[in-house]
Amino acid sequence: MYGCIFVFYLQYHLVYLSRRSIMKKIKTKLTKRSLYSVIITSLAIIISITSISISYCYNRKDNDALTTDSINDNSDNPKVYNHLQNELGKHVHVGVSALGRNYTDDALVVAQKLNASDCANNGHKVVYLTFDDGVSTTSTRKVLDILRNYDVHATFFVTGVSLIEGGDRAASLLKQAFNDGHAIGNHSYSHNYKYLFPNRVLNLDNFVADYKENDKLLSKILGPSFVTRVIRCPGGRMSWQGIEALDNYTKENHIAAVDWNALNGDAEGNTKNAQELYNFAVATSQGKELVVLLMHDDYGKQATVDALPKIIEYFKSNGYDFRTLS
Ligand SMILES: [Zn+2]
């Protein structure tokens, strides 16, 4: 803008100087021919400068538009999923396999709804089955079989320690989950509350380092083209202090930190049997069109495995779609 004003200011001076020069020459009684020559030269210079200035202003406007688009391209934009995939290349899997893309939704949108305690979904009932703390070589294998039998898909929030503990068998189950079309989320490497949240306050440096370590392990097993942008905090995002720093970090990095709004209670209070887990899941889902159901598939979760078929049947018979988070 200032450039344009400067260029027009220059043109004004040129016209002024040309006029002065013409008048001077008339006064000195120069020939008509030399007068025309001065006028034509001045006009040529003015036309050239005008073209350059218009071209400059036009290009400047284009650059301004580009900058504005980049600033607005934040994590609130629902197009960010495609944007991220384009950025990383079409061979990169963002949390799901090519098959899994058929069953998945934008985790950022779901996370925002959960954080706002918004369980409505425009009349469309949807349930996100989620399993934390795996992969285990016992529960996860059985959970995968049940999901396949019912032809429904889920999201697995995997820890690094579980993958290390389970060795090759756990790695092979993680690959099976991914290839079956389930979504894979990061649930930290260590799952260590004292390291991640000392004195119940988030330590962002420890948190980021721990999650990156788990990302590396997931890519090592699922291939270098695998990345996930979906995380879940051990104990849940809602449980800790100082979480604003995490919210800023996730927003800057297009990461969705997804909690839950229903649970089967397999990690809370007294040990429950399958019927009690089913009752808990149904009770905490009541009146919600959008349900993110927390369950666990680590070792010792046989009751969760036993309750799962009835839980799936409940949501099916109540008209819910089964979707995943990526
Ligand atoms: Zn956990």
UniProtKB/TrEMBL annotation:
Claim: ATP-binding is one of the keywords in the record: no
Residue stretches spanning the membrane: 34-56
CDD domains per record: CE4_SmPgdA_like (cd10944)
Keyword vocabulary terms for this entry: Membrane, Transmembrane, Transmembrane helix
GO molecular function list: hydrolase activity, acting on carbon-nitrogen (but not peptide) bonds
This protein's record includes keyword Translocase: no
PROSITE patterns hit by this protein: NODB (PS51677)
Gene3D superfamilies hit by this protein: Glycoside hydrolase/deacetylase
GO biological process: carbohydrate metabolic process
Domain named NodB homology: residues: 125-323
InterPro entries: Glyco_hydro/deAcase_b/a-brl, NODB_dom, Polysacc_deacetylase_ArnD
Residues in the signal sequence: none
Name of the molecule in the record: Polysaccharide deacetylase
Annotated organism of origin: Romboutsia weinsteinii
